Amino acid sequence: MASKNITIALFLTINLVFFGFTMAQAPGPQAPICPRSSTQVQACVNRLTSIVGLNVLPLTQCCFLVAGLAPSVASVCICNALKLSVLDILGITVTLGQVLGSCGVSPPAGFICA
Predict the structure, then answer these.
(1) Sorted alphabetically, which CDD domains does this protein's record hold (predicted)?
(2) What does pTM read for this prediction?
């Protein structure tokens, strides 16, 4: 009887250890989100839609949007603004690199605005 209790205790201990390891795994990396408010993003969208037909990109509102942000977060903010603008609907291509480049920020390698 004592060996049966030891076997059960050993079995339960091993199960607790293995279940503890499986539950203790860290979650995967989270995608960055834009910490700016919707009104700030809308100001950038308004600026993007007002440059139709102009060769110069006066994107000061978008530069204020990404000021002080990490390049990956700044890319997400500008990507959101580009998705909200009517430029996407009209088929006018203003690339993420153009907008970030005019603000002095380089997009992260391999970033795709999807």
Answers:
(1) HPS_like (cd01958)
(2) 0.60
